[in-house]
Amino acid sequence: MNDIKQVLDSINSLIDNGVNIFLLSGNVGVGKTFLVKEFAKTKGITQVNSPTFSFIHEYASLDSKIFHYDLYLKNTQDSKAKLLESLSLEGIHFIEWGDKSLAQTLQSLGFCVSLVEITESSTKDSRIYTIISIF
């Protein structure tokens, strides 16, 4: 998929089916935070920033909470414990720098997870989104 509206529709459909954790993978600058910003806009949230230096940002809309994490260079036991604790909070969780290994670990702990792989396309300013659901 390369249309952001289609991607957001797919994410909303997964949320309707019980998925609330989305692991975002892709190279630096590929648009992981952009995807979270676009999703947040659909919930009436206009101010979204990358949590690169703070681990987690939390946003509240009228109907849900959005948790936005950044795991880049944060592979410590403390970070993992904090992540697991936060994932128990009710809301929609977007985790930048997630991967298949983390998806499988979270799934084995009973979480409903989708992996969103973002890659650059040959067209300027266009991205390819692949969503893999791991239930």
TrEMBL record:
Q: Localized where?
A: Cytoplasm
**Protein name as it appears in the record:** tRNA threonylcarbamoyladenosine biosynthesis protein TsaE
Q: Write out the coiled-coil annotation as residue ranges.
A: none
Q: Which NCBIfam families match?
A: T6A_YjeE
Question: Primary place of residence?
Answer: cytoplasm
Q: Which domain of life is it from?
A: Bacteria
Under the heading PANTHER family, the entry gives: TRNA THREONYLCARBAMOYLADENOSINE BIOSYNTHESIS PROTEIN TSAE
Indicate the family of this protein: Belongs to the TsaE family.
- Which UniProt keywords are present, listed alphabetically? ATP-binding, Cytoplasm, Magnesium, Metal-binding, Nucleotide-binding, Transferase, tRNA processing
State the Gene Ontology terms under molecular function: ATP binding; metal ion binding; transferase activity
Q: Name one GO biological process term.
A: tRNA threonylcarbamoyladenosine modification
Designated gene of the protein: tsaE
Pfam families (UniProt xref): TsaE
GO CC annotations, alphabetized: cytoplasm
